[in-house]
Write a structure and sequence with these properties.
The protein has helices at 2-18, 24-33, 37-47, 58-75, 92-105, 122-130, 143-149, 161-164, 198-210; strands at residues 81-86, 113-119, 132-134, 150-153, 156-159, 167-171, 184-189, 212-220, 232-234, 239-242. It is an alpha/beta fold. The protein folds into two domains: 2-47, no CATH class; 58-242, Vaccinia Virus protein VP39 (Rossmann fold), CATH 3.40.50. Helix 4 crosses helix 5. Bound molecules: S-adenosylmethionine.
Length: 249
């Protein structure tokens, strides 16, 4: 906890110096005043953690292949599958989903699949849209994927168009109850709500529940749990299935 505090202090001090502000309260006044959107966006970026990697929690992706996708194939054979990655960071999670879909599609007649990544951090989203990753960020990617789904671009690895074209990104703040527009057939919200206080976490889970289709899955990070089992049934590995349309009053 202390090391996190030191890290945050260090990041914010550097930014305060960059802006030429004499004290932290001047810095916070500037952020709260709303007069400098660029500084506000950088503040959000500095206080959030963007750690992510391709195929993170691989067993959850196995679950998509063995359970979630076959169920969608049976229940929604023709309508577009809408998948949300909430708190998608620099894009690896969305592209992993798109690669798993592409593998699954082989030999099958699937409907279009749309993967939407949202995040509160614009710099993280810029990186996600660029879709070029240094070698150190693709070291957990299986060799077959590296040859099929990436091309070399300078020192980096670029995600190929056939994977990118199913994925789009938008800036949204999950703690805003109006952040989402549509209903999703699958939601991944992994390693995001762990950083929220209890009321925010409940509000975000409410929003995700509302925007998830009945019987569809919500996939959380391994340290994150849903207590309300009336609305979500637990399926193991931090995966929950929506079982009712009820919402909290
Ligand atoms: C640790 S990363 C997790 C990335 C990915 N989901 C994974 O599990 O690998 C958390 C991401 O959530 C984003 N985030 C934090 N608070 C958010 C909010 N209120 N709305 C949207 N995104 C948020 C951060 O900007 C960050 O990119």
């Amino acid at each position: 906890m202390r090391s996190k505090r030191v890290l945050l202090d260090c990041r914010l001090s550097r930014e305060r110096n960059r802006l030429g502000l004499p004290s932290f309260s001047d810095y916070l006044d500037l952020i709260e005043s709303g007069t400098n959107p660029e500084a506000a966006a950088r503040f959000i970026d500095l206080v959030t953690t963007h750690y992510t990697y391709f195929l993170r929690e691989r067993r959850q992706f196995d679950f998509l292949r063995t359970t979630a996708f076959p169920e969608l194939e049976a229940s929604r054979p023709r309508r577009t599958w809408n998948i949300l990655c909430a708190g998608c960071s620099t894009g690896e999670e969305c592209y992993t989903v798109s690669m798993i879909v592409e593998d699954y599609r082989r030999g099958r007649n699937l409907p279009p699949v749309r993967v939407t990544g949202i995040d509160v951090s614009e710099p993280a989203l810029e990186e996600a849209r660029r879709a070029v990753y240094p070698a150190t960020r693709v070291d957990k990617v299986p060799p077959r994927w590296l040859t099929s789904y990436f091309t070399r671009e300078g020192d980096g690895f670029a995600v190929v168009d056939s994977i990118r074209r199913h994925v789009s990104f938008a800036r949204a703040n999950l703690s805003d109850p109006e952040a989402l527009r549509r209903r999703y057939d699958l939601i991944l919200c992994r390693n995001v709500i762990i950083y929220f206080d209890e009321p925010t976490r409940e509000r975000v889970l409410d929003t995700l529940h509302r925007h998830l289709a009945l019987s569809s899955y919500l996939i959380l990070g391994h340290a994150e749990i849903v207590r309300d089992r009336k609305r979500f049934a637990y399926r193991g590995d931090s995966i929950y299935q929506k079982r009712s349309e009820e919402t909290h009053s």
